[in-house]
Amino acid sequence: MWQEVDLFAILPNLVVFALVAIVPGYFWTLAFYPEKNSLDRLERFAFSMVFSITFTPMLVLVENVIFRIPVNFFSVATTTLVLFIISLLIYLVRTERISAPKFVNRLFPRVKKEDSVKIVPKLF
């Protein structure tokens, strides 16, 4: 009934799960809520899971239906990477870490660098 589980065999799967189910959503929370006081850690983690689980499959489905891109490892990895890069760029523009044209500021209001969340949070 019980089987032995090799933890080293599970570790790569956990890393891939974290990269697909948490990281893109975390950067979307940074893009949408860059202020320090806008979300606490638990809310930010919950939103990261929701955004990742929502945006990645939705974009993969749109790519498949509209552009006829097959769903495979490469297409999902590329979609995850594109979502990550777009959200990171929005965060960097909003927190004045990189400059952008004026019309972008109307779409993404700026937040002072001092008032923004760090990209890598302190765990403790």
Structure report:
With 124 residues, the protein is mainly α. It has one domain (8-115). The chain is built from 5 helices and no strands. Helix 2 runs parallel beside helix 4 (73-94) and helix 3 (41-67) packs across helix 4 (73-94). The radius of gyration is 17 Å and the shape is flat. The termini are far apart.
At a glance:
The chain is an all-alpha fold and 124 residues long.
Work out the helicity level. 55-70%
N-to-C series of helices and strands = HHHHH
The protein's oligomeric status is single chain
SS class: mainly alpha
Give the termini separation: 39 Å
The profile of the biggest β sheet is: none
| Inertia-based shape | flat
Low-pLDDT ranges: none
Total helices: the number is: 5
How confident is the prediction overall: mean pLDDT?
Answer: 88
- What's the domain count? 1
Radius of gyration: 17 Å
Beta-strand percentage range: under 5%
Annotation, overall tally of beta strands: 0
Strand and helix layout:
Blueprint: H1 7-21, H2 23-32, H3 41-67, H4 73-94, H5 102-107
Helix pairs in contact: 2-3, 2-4, 3-4
Which features characterize this protein?
flat, mainly alpha, 0% strand, 124 residues
